[in-house]
């Protein structure tokens, strides 16, 4: 038995209105025609079967990023000097140990700043 238009309306009791341009309605009609379905049925198929991709645009302050990169470079340079010192047979001293601890501390502080700027900390201290 063929389903009447009235029976189909009862299966879809909610009405939604959308404004379209002339080009958009023409595209809608063409695509529905290709599938051999009504506009409504075509839109329902799109709604249910079509995957929509969400694009996220990241906006960054270049000056701040350059400063962060510069700070990372300075810390890296300090760590290289410390490694060179130990690799050339240098003795451990309190000053060298303090320099190492300061570099590590600076790295963690920069990491915390970067995460905060990126909005990834969510107020959770374990992510720092």
UniProtKB/TrEMBL annotation:
InterPro entries: Arc_rbn_hlx_hlx, NikA-like. It comes from the Bacteria. This is Bacterial mobilisation domain-containing protein. Pfam families: NikA-like. Gene3D superfamilies: Met repressor-like.
């Amino acid at each position: 038995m063929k389903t009447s238009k009235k029976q189909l309306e009862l299966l879809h009791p909610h009405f939604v209105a959308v404004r379209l341009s002339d080009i958009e309605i023409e595209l809608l009609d063409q695509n529905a025609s290709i599938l051999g379905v009504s506009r409504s049925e075509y839109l329902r198929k799109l709604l249910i079967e079509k995957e929509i991709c969400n694009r996220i645009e990241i906006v960054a302050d270049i000056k701040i990023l350059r400063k962060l990169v510069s700070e990372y470079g300075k810390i890296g340079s300090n760590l290289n000097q410390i490694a060179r010192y130990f690799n050339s047979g240098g003795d451990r001293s309190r000053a060298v140990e303090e320099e190492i601890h300061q570099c590590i501390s600076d790295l963690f502080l920069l990491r915390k700043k970067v995460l905060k700027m990126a909005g990834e900390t969510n107020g959770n201290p374990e992510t720092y």
